[in-house]
Amino acid sequence: MADLINLLGMVAAVTGISMTGSFFLQAIKIWKNKSAKDVSLLMFVVSIINFVLWTAYGYLIKSWIIFSPNAVGIVAASTVIALVFRFKNN
Question: What is the pLDDT of residues 46-58, one digit of tens each?
Fold first, then answer.
């Protein structure tokens, strides 16, 4: 049973990383279009708060399965926010 639980955790980590990594797709779109006019800044701010809390929790309980995808999410969402400010007037 423990092996099944660990496998589930690893699959969740991989899907979590790919899901949060999809934020980079938004960053690429902003960069290519040189515009962030339709991006919800609030959604990414809320996402960062969520990612920071989960990352801290994963670190404190020493769970890389929780820590890793959320750490990627912080970087991804922060990238989008930086680009929103960079291209906010376009």
Answer: 999 999 999 999 9
Domain span at residue 79 reads 2-86
What pLDDT shows up at residue 84? 94
Domain count, the chain: 1
List the chain residues with pLDDT less than 50. none
**Chain Cα centroid distance, residue 64:** 15
Q: What secondary structure, in 3-state letters, does 4-41 show?
A: HHHHHHHHHHHHHHHHHHHHHHHHHHHHHHCCCCCCCH
Q: What is the pTM of this model?
A: 0.80
The CATH number of the domain where 73 resides is what?
Answer: 1.20.1280.290
